Amino acid sequence: MSEDRTRAETARKRVALVGATGSVGSSVLDVCRRHPDRVRVAALAAGKDAEKLASLSREFGPETLCMAGAEAAAALGRLALTPPEESSAPPSVLFGADGLDRIARDPEIDHVVFASSGTAAIGALQAALESGKEVSLANKESIVVAGAWVMPLVRGSGQLRPLDSEHNAVWQCLQGEAGKPRKIYLTASGGPFRDWSFEALETVTPEMALKHPVWNMGAKISIDSATLMNKGIELLEAAVLFGLEPSQVEALVSPGSFVHGLVEFEDGCVKMLAGEPDMRLPAASCLFWPERLPPSGAGPFETPRFRPELSGRRVSFDMADERRFPALRIAKEALRKGGACPALLVGADEVAVESFMKKEISFTAISEVVEETMAAYSGAAPRSLRGALDILEWARTRCAQICRSRR
Fold first, then answer.
1. Where do the DSSP E strands lie in 240-291?
2. Residues contacting residue 193 through CB under 8 Å, at least 6 positions apart
């Protein structure tokens, strides 16, 4: 390798991406794809889609790949993993929590992006923070369920960078501000059923709920967005991420998802971050913080520049109707009560959404069975990460029982 190429390789940030085959991971990779002089994709991890991960490996040439299980890793190992024109050795193939931990602790990795859902990567998140790496985070469960055992590991304001659009907006608004805000507001588009009556909501099918009006997301998040449970869980996440009391976080319905988050300060002033609903924008802000990319016309994205005189855009904010969308109310109650409630909420919602997708329960029953599951728990609050995960699993089991009783 020439001296110039060696210097260029050293200057590039080496990135590991957990959740490479999902929608958020795809946005992160598009940013990396457009900035090959700034970032090097050094490791990729996914759940079960070996074919897609192999395709990404052939494109980006990482040194390490990781799958959720041994069977998926074996399937990946049978595929071509390097570009046809290259004669370099194929990447190492790892699997499971141990594989993620090795990636997170790799001294050659500078920045780890957690874009997967679920709790499987919590250990790797802790390892990355303990190792002093930059971390971009778009995994709600790791903060809502395990925040008490994750946040103490954060070193400084720039190490943990929220990647979800709303939390990223608040994070950007807080940069350069002294002290904590009076209140923050996360925006919601309102989902596809924003104006539906409660009676009409009872007729919603999975196919209807998957058609989000703004964002292109996975099935679970799309359903959660339709019930507003996603926004409720995001409120819990925001309170932990920014060290706020339940009364300091709120959700607002803002159709179009142009304004992503607002921060109110003690003097009454409000800062907000607005932009096109494009996950590449928060991804780029996390990867390159504190720098900003050039405007769209001269930079990597095809999204149009903001032109107020031509856009005809109208921005509005309304409170969500918690009678029609009780999932938001239930999540707020979990935030106020704390203890075991956040883990119970997350575990029950996972199963409720899955049962709805299988058409075993109705759309409006999702929040009902979550609330019933939470009410059935009589145990203590978790005192360890293992305890929190046990409560999460209890909620899954109990909610599955409740869903079966409703068939």
1. 249-253, 259-264, 270-274
2. 200, 201, 204, 209, 226
> In terms of Cα–Cα distance, which of 112, 108, 144 is closest to 125?
112
Q: Hunting for tokens 């009780």 — which residue is that?
A: 326
Q: Which CATH number is associated with domain 3-137?
A: 3.40.50.720
Strands 249-253 and 183-188: parallel
Q: Are 16 and 40 in contact (CB under 8 A)?
A: no
Q: What is the pTM of this model?
A: 0.91
The DSSP secondary structure of 151-191, one letter per residue, reads GGG--STTTEEE-SHHHHHHHHHHTT--S--SEEEEEE---
- Do residues 113 and 18 lie in contact, with contact meaning Cβ atoms separated by under 8 Å? yes
User: Angle between the 280-288 and 165-174 helix axes, to the nearest 10 degrees?
Assistant: 40
The confidence score (pLDDT) of residue 2 equals 47
Q: Who's near 276: CB < 8 A, 6+ residues apart?
A: 258, 303, 304, 306
Terminal-to-terminal C-alpha distance of the chain? 64
Q: Cα 363 to the chain's mean position, in Å? A: 23
Lowest mean pLDDT among 56-65, 81-90, 138-147, 267-276: 81-90
The dihedral built from the CA positions of residue 140, 232, 357 and 354, taken in this order, carries a sign that is positive
Rounded to the nearest 5 degrees, what angle is found at the Cα of 162, between the Cα atoms of 315 and 176? 75
CA gyration radius, the chain? 21
Q: Has residue 90 got a pLDDT over 50?
A: yes
187, 254 contact by CB (below 8 A): yes
Asked if the model's pLDDT at residue 192 lies above 90, the reply is: no
* Phi, psi of 58, deg, nearest 5: -65, -30
Domain locations along the chain: 3-137
